[in-house]
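To: structure subgroup
Subject: Chain for Friday's discussion

All,

I'm putting the inputs and outputs inline so they're searchable in the archive.
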Amino acid sequence: MSNIQPFDPAQGRLQYSNLQFLKLGGSLITDKYTPHSPRIDVIARLAQEIKTALNENDNLRLVLGHGSGSFGHVPAKKYGTRQGVDSTEGWRGFAEVWYEASSLNRIVIDAFQEVGLPVVAFPPSGAVTTSRGQVTNWNVDPIRHALDAGILPVVYGDVVFDEILGGTILSTEDLFMHLAQELKPRRISLAGIDEGVWADYPQCTQLIPEITPGNWDQIAASIGNSAATDVTGGMASKVKQMLDLVEGVSDLEVLIFSGDQPKNVFVGLNGEIVGTQMHKKTNV
């Protein structure tokens, strides 16, 4: 705890020597091909890996996020919620997506409670407003105070009210984009089922070890999208989103790797490189 400095309102963010964000992808914690199919054993293992990492690293602070997988993405696709809401049927769909996303979140929260981690969910639907999908209002002070108290804050892909679109959906990556500007993590880890970013998706035989602004143009065309339903974008859009974030936040790196491989999440939280690494620096 000695490495933690109190929240400084003048700076507008907490100062931690090791603040990380971790997303547990929807394809990792659910079977995305089968509606309402949480991977309970996987979620339990991930919870234990995260607990072990936190126990072994006193200065590690973590913001956890997770996708909606086969819960939220199914009704989201049916109603086109990501594109906007402007009808009675659309608002019913909006509420259905909220229900499905929150249902999966409760399963995740229960698993973390089971291993003894102090977790608190921060649903975006109750705190975030957007304009054309861009965050315009989000008081993140409660998340700051949770971190300061040693609590593990959990955000997740969720519906939000939008000033122009009526309603829309923010992915975990969308949420991390905003939170990273506020909290300045040193690492963001995106744990899915792929070993990293493939140069030859869907054949998946050539893993890209490193992505930087310098090599993005060369590899962008070879990166594929998600195989299962994903209304918030496939791999290519997520990689570009994270690359933009790497360019905008000082000293940030992003890892994309398989959380299906036991101990990968633990290894990543311990500071090691696993999967595909994204960073701003280029070797000269």
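Points worth raising on Friday:
Residues 5-196+251-278 form a domain with the Carbamate kinase fold (CATH 3.40.1160.10).
The CA atoms of residues 21 and 188 lie 5 Å apart.

D.
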